[in-house]
């Protein structure tokens, strides 16, 4: 106990000599002596070490010390009050800080607009996994093993035997819907896809697609053309130049590609349109009978059409963006340009 009394005497001398220079010094004093882990609380915790016959005596000493520490703090309380008044002073006549609005990514904006256009035509949304098996990504779509059309897509494989891969097209989601067997089918399947391509102004190792599928009795190529004509006019305007040209896809027969006049160069030729004045925006065709049969649909009774487009390509044309890489570089200066398009 004698040692504790000597400590208290030393603390009293320290308190007597203390004169704070400001509110910060006073706060440090409060923490040191009166805080929850301060000296006063610690000394009261030592009471259990004091012999029972001297607890009353030591208690009186502790109470006097506590009152001394508190009195010193209250002596300079005006420093604390002045600091609080200064902190709480707000000039309500000042203008408010501007509230910065975020922007939706241009890919998201165009994706949403594509969805809205096709929803008005009765299409619903179907989504699927980005990690796919070989059947849904290739074989069911009339691309059996060693089919030369597989070379058109340089694929990221996760494992072999069995084959698991990052999907190269959202057609895999269409296969899953067809396998469910609920006819008729009228869906679009938006999502991200992956291909091992050299990154450039026109290509990337990942991009976004929207693919469409319509299966019912007596669906014709004329239905396909009118659907896509409507889409282009809604997306780009009534006077957009359009052309169809024959093409090849293993999952459609007959197949075609749809081009529009390049908005970036106005048809005069640039790096985006490869100096042709036309830009391919989608591939399409009538669903191949083997694809229908692979998915358990009778090709003698049902027909259908399918189409697929890259959202980046549509966005580049709509907003006249010349480099596809801008979409994934997260440059705020680029993204802020689309604030007014929300």
TrEMBL record:
Catalytic activity: tRNA(Phe) + L-phenylalanine + ATP = L-phenylalanyl-tRNA(Phe) + AMP + diphosphate + H(+)
Compartments, record wording: Cytoplasm
Free-text remark on how the cofactor is bound: Binds 2 magnesium ions per tetramer.
Obligatory cofactor(s): Mg(2+)
TM annotation in the entry: none
Family annotation (InterPro entries): aa-tRNA-synth_II, aa-tRNA-synth_II/BPL/LPL, Phe-tRNA-synth_IIc_asu, Phe-tRNA_ligase_II_N, Phe_tRNA_ligase_alpha1_bac, Phenylalanyl-tRNA_Synthase, tRNA-bd_arm
Primary site of residence: cytoplasm
Enzyme nomenclature, EC number: 6.1.1.20
Gene3D superfamilies given in the database record: Bira Bifunctional Protein, Domain 2
Name this polypeptide is given: Phenylalanine--tRNA ligase alpha subunit
Gene source species: Chitinophaga terrae (ex Kim and Jung 2007)
């Amino acid at each position: 106990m004698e040692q504790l009394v000597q400590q208290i005497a030393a603390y009293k001398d320290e308190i007597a000599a203390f004169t704070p220079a400001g509110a910060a010094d006073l706060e440090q004093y409060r923490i040191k002596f009166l805080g929850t882990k301060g000296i006063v609380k610690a000394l009261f915790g030592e009471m259990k070490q004091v012999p029972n016959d001297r607890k009353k005596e030591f208690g009186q000493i502790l109470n006097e010390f506590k009152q001394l520490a508190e009195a010193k703090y209250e002596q300079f309380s005006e420093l604390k009050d002045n600091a609080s008044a200064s902190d709480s002073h707000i000039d309500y006549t000042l203008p408010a800080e501007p509230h910065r609005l975020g922007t939706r990514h241009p890919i998201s904006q165009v994706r949403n607009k594509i969805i809205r256009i096709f929803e008005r035509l009765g299409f619903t949304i179907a989504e699927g996994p980005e990690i796919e098996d070989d059947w849904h990504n290739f074989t069911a779509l009339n691309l059996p093993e060693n089919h030369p059309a597989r070379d058109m897509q340089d694929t990221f494989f996760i494992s072999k035997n069995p084959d698991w891969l990052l999907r190269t097209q959202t057609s895999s989601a269409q296969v899953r819907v067809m396998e469910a067997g609920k006819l008729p089918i009228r869906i679009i399947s938006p999502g991200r896809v992956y291909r091992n391509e050299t990154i450039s102004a026109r290509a990337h190792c990942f991009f976004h697609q929207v693919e469409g599928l319509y299966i019912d009795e007596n669906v014709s190529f004329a239905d396909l053309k009118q659907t896509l004509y409507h889409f282009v006019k809604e997306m780009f305007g009534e006077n957009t130049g359009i052309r169809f040209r024959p093409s090849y896809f293993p999952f459609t027969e007959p197949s075609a590609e749809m081009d529009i006049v390049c908005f970036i160069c106005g048809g005069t030729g640039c790096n985006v349109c490869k100096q042709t004045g036309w830009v391919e925006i989608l591939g399409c065709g009538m669903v191949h009978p083997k694809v229908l049969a692979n998915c358990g649909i009778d090709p003698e009774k049902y027909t259908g059409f399918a189409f697929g487009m890259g959202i980046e390509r549509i966005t580049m044309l709509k907003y006249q963006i010349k480099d596809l890489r801008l979409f994934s570089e997260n440059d705020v200066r680029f993204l802020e340009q689309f604030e007014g398009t929300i």
